[in-house]
Amino acid sequence: MNDLISGVCPVLSVPFTESGEVDYESFESLVKWIISLDAKSVLFFGVASENIKLTDPERYKLLEILLETRKGSDLKVIASVADHSSELAVKRARDYEAMGADLINILPPSFFNPSAEQIRFHLAQILAAVKIPVVIQHLPQGGASADVADLLTLADEFTNLKIVKCESNPPVESIKRVAEITNGKVQTLIGWGGIFWDSGDAAGAKGIQPGCGVSDLYKWTEAALVSGDRAEFVRRLNTFIPWITSWIDNLELLIAVEKHILFRRGIIKSDYCRHPTMAITEKAKAEIEECLELIKKVEAGNG
């Protein structure tokens, strides 16, 4: 089976102005930068996109810009549907498909702890509504289904269920179970900043979906993996993944740090995060400086 999505698939940030308005120009610059790194796919909208803090008109305009900007490249766009309402989720999925998204990502509902049957109904409604391939996010720490097997009962009924994004910590057992239960028909991706990339890849996952602030470091690391040099892959990963592991303990901190890095690199014009947000800690500030130094070394070929 050809891998539908593989390697590094960044989750795009949404830049804002200092007054908290969406900065569409900076967003276009961000997309162009991601394309310049030879990324083959992106996820939009994710937690790292501050999706929950966006209005619907903002979401649709941002997606239009992304789809327009990627023309002429081979970048695949995975558009995320995170509505708690099944009816609204179906409408959004159909809209995104009509706009030209290549895949739909579903974040299962978790508000008020819906039952496994309610989650299955929600997923089935969306899977039946679109023809393009679908990714289902398995994020048990977010309050959705704790057992990945609950999501896979849909794989035989809906052939467009192609990928499960495994974000349990660690995800290795979930990755193995997806392969076993579906006999390899459903592939897996690693979420949660790619902090389990090494073990997840060894378990059979096809790629990772981290934030986008250091996408070039992830691509640099991927190059060693693709070349077959496992030791170099692990070495490169360990130069920066401890920082990601530290930042991701608080998702608002991770979002703020990633945006600050993008701002410092001149990719976006402001590191503003919509509230509620979190101030960057002194520890994280020091780690950011180390990270920026590493980026310079990698760019100079001395990583």
From TrEMBL:
Keywords: Lyase. Gene3D superfamilies: Aldolase class I (3.20.20.70). Pfam families: DHDPS. InterPro entries: Aldolase_TIM, DapA-like. One of its GO terms (cellular component) is cytosol. GO terms for molecular function: 4-hydroxy-tetrahydrodipicolinate synthase activity. This is Unannotated protein. It comes from freshwater metagenome.
